[in-house]
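Reviewers asked in the last cycle whether our approach scales beyond single polypeptides. To address this, we selected a multi-component target totalling 748 residues and predicted its structure end to end. The input consisted of the following lines:
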Amino acid sequence: MKDTIIEVRELLKEYGGEAVVNYISFSVAEGEFVTLLGPSGCGKTTILRLLAGFEKPTGGDIFLYGKKINDMLPFERPVNTVFQNYALFPHLNVYENIAFPLKIKKLPKKTIEEKVSYYLEVVNLTGFGKRDVESLSGGQQQRVAIARALANEPKVLLLDEPLSALDLKLRKEMQNELKRIQQEVEITFIYVTHDQEEALSLSDKVIVMRKGEILQIGSPIDIYNEPINAYVAGFIGESNIIDGTMSRSYEVDFLGKAFMCVDRKFPETNQVKVLIRPEDIGFSAIEGSKLPATIKSVTFKGVHYEYTAEVDGFIFLIHSTISKQEGEAVGLTFTPNDIHIMRAEQRNIIPALVDNNGHVEFLGGVFECEYDGEGTDVLAVIKPADWIIYPPGDPSAKLHAVIQNISYHSERYECVARCQDSDLMIESISPLKMGEVLGLDVHSDDIAIIRDEQALEDMDNEDIDEEERDV
Amino acid sequence: MKTTRILGIPYYVWMAIFIVLPLVLMLVLSLQARGSDDWTLDNFKNFFASENGMYMRIISDSTVLAGYSTVLCLLIGYPVAYFVSKLPSRQSSFFLIMLVLPTWLNFLLRTYSWMNLLGKNGLINKFLVFFGLKPMNLLYNNGAILLGMVYNFLPFMVYPIYSVMAKIKPTFLEAARDLGASEFQAFWKITFPLTIPGIITGIMMVFMPAVSTFVIPELLGGGQRMYIGNLIQHQFLQSGDWNMGSAVSILMMAMILVAMFILNKFDATGDKEDALW
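The resulting structure, written as structure tokens, was:
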């Protein structure tokens, strides 16, 4: 295990009261290539700017080699940034750009020359020193920006979507270059991108983000094969996500059949999401196949065909090199290893009464909320982590619930607590006790009011659509 | 292509009648002696060999005065441009409008107002007297001329510098800071070099009118000293020596061209598209 170089603890950044980075914690090991992956507006660039020191955190801490650096100015941090638009100084040539940090440090002229020519060599631009930066191609400018940041010999290099301005072919080329450069100089890279392919092919560790929060941290293979939820699965690649139930370990029911799988049952729920990647589905004869299906459409993609196939109203996406006709009846096959089980997103859905004055009543408590739809009989949707927990008897509590069962998942406690006749799912970072009475409240922003279950489904789809559009 | 050419005709005609023709006439006049049709260089000879170097003194006085005005405009204008460029856009446009607002009023009127302010019985002196102080000689000296010049030409310095400065991407400065530069180093090594084209344009825009102005020295300086502008005006309107006047005008134009040429040499590193030419 390598030493931790950067540790971020409960980092919070707010702009005008809105959290752009919402209590985020992660650590980076020395020499690691870490990617922050997420759609635009998820807060990944803000994290980079916080690490570089261009922004001050609203809360939380950043540690470098165990030393808190919250208040350090950008130039005091052994951290350098490669900017999205390169930010090469237009009045200086390639050599002078790379020499900039060295001249600031007032190194002897000979040392500067040696270093500049070394880093020009690292980025494959030997002989370009005298060139005007504006005469260079996008890829070359990118290389100069990297060389300039490396010349300062930082401990950590931050890269903010460095390849986003390049065309596809150059981007592939630069991906390989980046990986090679990182291995050559052995510096920790923290890389920001919204391109999942880039993230998967470059990184040692990927941090998937959404709306200022971390969804999953893991190796590219883990993230691809074992995404934590449907959102990560959808973001990280094309996928088929099916509602399923799991009443025991190693067996999952979906589309009316039981299938063997390699995952254990979640202790708290039977409801799961099943992920099968399009390339993991194969064709076979209908007899003896896992699912009988009908081909709905065929698109030739060069390396493979992309099919959609229907099974009982569910449309599968399939990538295969085998040629099939539209309308053909086929059998689908996949192995237990190809079935990935994800926790369905947990939510409390509570019947409630809403009035027009911004109040909602459920389980005997009255809460403030925003709702401009019709009707008074509604459902209140609250995430388990959004409850505010008070000690028993605290007068601020609006509801009281008795803990029925508790499970511990890395760094958080999940419990089911009974309030009147309903079971509430509650998540807490501080320990909980069986049989304990919890006082509960919830912030008005964290209550989503919907009309019926159908509206809930629409809301989920909209959520994903919206973020895909951002990208 | 053809229609575009047709659209250009009014300008060509305008240019021919009001720019090219007068220039040719002036050149012809400058090469003839007064009241004669023979070609001669006497006007220029007289200029350079005038008794006790009068004309040369006028040239150097004019250059020095224009130089002072330009330097003052730069010293005042650069910080103003820097300050305004750092403001949020709504505030910066307010400041820029405030800066040009006086220029909406006629140049002569503004200069006459300064006479009223600075004069013996002007507003400032009345004020001094009211507080029991002695009135001062504010008008008809070099200080008044300089004040009038800076007051009138400052916007021409601020504008070009501001427009170049506003285009500098904030990431350049962030990058400089990130790479170890202090705030001053970031300014000196990034902002300043990138604003040189603006400074050069500003210098040209101030120096040129400053070197040839005759209204300001006439009104605020009381015409005690003669500058090139006054000299040309004098030759044409008082002495009626159009030939000598033309020769001086041609020399002044040559001077300005040389000055611009030299300035452009300093702009070798700058962005060519932003420069005046």
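The CA atoms of residues 306 and 319 of chain A lie 5 Å apart. We regard this as preliminary and will revisit it once experimental data from Aim 1 are available.
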